[in-house]
Design brief:
The structure holds two protein chains of two kinds. Chain A is an alpha+beta fold. Chain A contains two helices and three strands, in the order αβββα. Chain A is elongated. Helices cover about 20% and strands about 30% of the residues of chain B. Classes of the chains: A alpha+beta, B alpha+beta.
Chain lengths: ~80, ~625
């Protein structure tokens, strides 16, 4: 089996990203999967992209645009 | 009139910190690789173009590597001529073939070298700069500039007046995010420009004799809430940081390969909340944008394609450019800003920030205060508790670099740090660092840390910054107390005054007791330090009781105490509490091995319309 390499982009491990760890994953061409060298996550490119969206659950203001008079206004 | 100042800085970093690792995977290390050099310079050109297209001038900080590159030098000269960009010199970007061959090291952080090496590198880089441009730079910088380094540069190259000198709250959090591989430990500094003291860069100078001679600016303007809590590299005025944190909504490629539709309201909210800080700082606010080329490499970064990396930089510059066109922003070079800042600020004038959550969807609010004597964070989500405290009054000497006790560690030590050494909440045992109060009645006890509120800033008299919190209701079984906290920072005093006003009680004749307390320790990371060096004391008139800390869980109370205090020799700090109020009784508490803290406090009693007042005082111990 040949050595792993980097994929098309430096995809981060979704499981580690959720715990504020940025770790690039490596790509196993033989199995067609990315894998994390620190934890046990493995997944396809599609799965990585989908799972990395999970980090956004905490960003409830992701699409909110504040006006200047809202910085001291609270609901 | 309010003024929002912007510094945009670009560096032609011929071997970007990240690009070599990322683009070079699968190849043996070769810092002279032509493709890498070409790509790096292309990114610099793209960044310069984005700023200029939006009518913004920049400070070009030449790197050591770029001084060996004729094209980079020519580009800097041309942009200086055409756009008025300043040509400065950064101490970042040292890695290159020439540096490695000359210095035989892979170290690249100037503050980590031993002092002789720092001097050699500075002289080499400044000399090379003079050779290429015929003058010495007026601005310089790195991620961190230790005091000895700044002093040497100022002494040898007195024309230097501005430097990038720290990266706000880049420390253990960034280290952890990088799987414990990124050794930049520089917590505890100012978030906005300041004049560093000669003995400790993070501690601002209190007067001319302490003045290091430069104006320092932070590396990026960082989110004063998200960055304190999480990975700093996700929350700053750095469009690619925002992508790294996934704080955007992605666009898409069309059939012809063009990328569009991306949005990042968070980036604009962050910039605008910084603009808003003019309200608390005599009409002045500041932003800094400094994106290294590695963040825009052709391979893409953090799941983001190159097209998005580039577009986000354009969009960030376009927003700043729009503010400028609307007369809401003044772009300056670093040396222009240094002159502006010295004309604008007094030494003792604090930097204040009233900051709200911009991204998580909460109503959480913090207040940050920084002056030559302290940096403090007040958390309104915890009833106005002080959750971070750095005693700059000690002006702690802290040598940094190989050959000193601190090879990498640059942080200014804390007395209170709620993230590293717990705050109000601990797991079943022990205490965490926080300055708060408990209100007690008939065996019930309520800590103000659980009374969420909001604050309003005012300057009722010259030099007085007052934070008035919305009143909170403290509900006991047979009594409700409406209590208001007022926190006052008096310029030049090194004191924090906290008043608790009992506005109303459901039973006007009732009485409650108050326990004003500060749980503290010292350190720069999450891990405990040796506490046996600490001496606790309580004093009244000529009577003084002292205790040498020995983890024995002892305590002592003194009725009508004038002060209770702790002396912490490793950080040369003396911290004390004084109080004014009915039935006041000062106390100190020693901690124990599972709770390596100390507590200073005052008990007292309060009735309706009464006030209990305390002062937290910081001083150098020797």
């Amino acid at each position: 089996m040949a050595q792993a390499g980097k994929g098309r982009l430096n995809y981060r491990c979704p499981s580690c990203f959720m715990r504020d760890l940025d770790i690039d994953m490596f790509y196993d061409a033989a199995k067609g999967e990315y894998y994390c060298i620190r934890c046990q996550y493995t997944g396809t490119e599609e799965d990585v992209l989908e799972k990395n969206q999970m980090a956004r659950f905490r960003y409830r203001f992701l699409t909110r645009r504040f006006t200047m008079d809202e910085f001291e206004k609270f609901d | 009139m309010e003024e929002f100042i912007l510094n945009i800085i670009h560096r032609p970093e011929m071997v970007p910190e990240y690009a070599e690792k990322v683009t070079g995977h699968g190849q043996a290390e070769d810092l002279g690789r032509k493709a890498l050099l070409t790509e790096s310079l292309d990114i610099f050109k793209i960044q310069q173009d984005a700023a200029h297209r939006n009518g913004l001038k920049t400070t070009i900080q030449m790197t050591y590597a770029s001084l060996f590159n004729d094209e980079a030098v020519a580009l800097a000269k041309a942009d200086h001529q055409r756009y008025g960009d300043e040509i400065g010199l950064t101490l970042l970007g040292l890695p290159c073939k020439e540096f490695r061959e000359k210095y035989k090291t892979k170290d690249f952080c100037i503050w980590m070298f031993d002092m002789d090496m720092k001097k050699s590198v500075v002289d080499d880089v400044f000399g090379k700069f003079y050779e290429r441009f015929g003058f010495y730079p007026e601005s310089t910088g790195s991620y961190y500039m230790d005091a000895a380094l700044i002093n040497y540069i100022k002494e040898t190259y007195p024309m230097v007046k501005c430097a990038v000198a720290t990266c706000w709250e880049e420390g253990p959090k960034a280290y952890h995010t990088c799987n414990n591989s990124w050794y930049t430990f520089m917590d505890g500094g100012p978030w906005a420009p300041w004049i560093p003291s000669k003995v400790n860069t993070h501690a601002p100078a209190a007067n001319e004799s302490e003045d290091s001679g430069i104006v320092a600016i932070p590396h990026l303007s960082r989110d004063l809430m998200a960055c304190y809590d999480g990975n700093g590299s996700n929350f700053g005025t750095h469009p690619q940081n925002v992508l790294r944190g996934m704080l955007y909504t992605p666009g898409r490629f069309d059939e012809e390969g063009r990328y569009s539709g991306q949005t990042y309201p968070y980036l604009y909210n962050l910039i605008d909340q910084y603009r808003y800080q003019a309200k608390f700082n005599n009409g002045y606010a500041y932003n800094m944008q400094f994106v290294g080329p590695g963040w825009m490499n052709k391979m893409g970064r953090w799941e983001a394609p190159y097209e998005l990396l580039k577009a986000s930089y354009d969009d960030g510059c376009a927003y700043y450019g729009r503010l400028k066109k609307e007369g809401k922003l003044i772009d300056m070079t670093m040396s222009e800003f240094a002159d502006y800042y010295r004309g604008k600020k007094r030494y003792t004038e604090p930097e204040c920030a009233l900051w709200r959550d911009l991204i998580y969807g909460s109503d959480k609010q913090l207040f940050w205060y920084c002056d030559p004597y302290m940096r403090a964070c007040v958390n309104m989500d915890q009833g106005g508790a002080i959750v971070d405290l750095r005693p700059y009054a000690a002006k702690l000497e802290w040598e940094i670099g190989i050959g000193t006790p601190h090879v990498q560690e640059c942080a200014y030590p804390f007395l209170i740090q709620e993230k590293y050494r717990a705050g109000y909440f601990t797991h079943y045992a022990g205490e965490g660092t926080v300055r708060s109060a408990k209100i007690c009645h008939k065996g019930e006890e309520v800590d103000l840390c659980l009374c969420r509120t909001k604050a309003h800033f005012s300057e009722p008299t010259p030099g007085c910054r007052k934070l008035t919190l919305d009143p909170v209701d403290i509900v006991f079984q047979d009594l409700t107390v409406k209590l208001q906290t007022v926190i006052t920072f008096q310029e030049g005093s090194s004191d924090i005054q906290i008043e608790r006003h009992v506005l109303e009680m459901s039973d006007p004749d009732a009485e409650v007791t108050i326990n004003e307390y500060m749980v503290a320790c010292y350190g720069v990371t999450e891990y405990p330090e040796d506490m046996t060096c600490i001496t606790l004391s309580a004093k009244k008139g000529g009577e003084e009781n002292t205790l040498a800390y020995a983890y024995k869980c002892r305590d002592y109370s003194l009725a009508q105490a004038d002060e209770v205090a702790a002396v912490i020799p490793p950080i040369k700090t003396r911290v004390s509490l004084e109080a004014e109020g009915r039935d006041k009784e000062g106390y100190y508490k020693e901690g124990y091995a599972f709770s390596p803290m100390f507590t200073l406090g005052y008990n007292g009693t309060l009735k309706e319309k009464e006030v209990f007042r305390t002062w937290l005082k910081l001083a150098r111990a020797d």
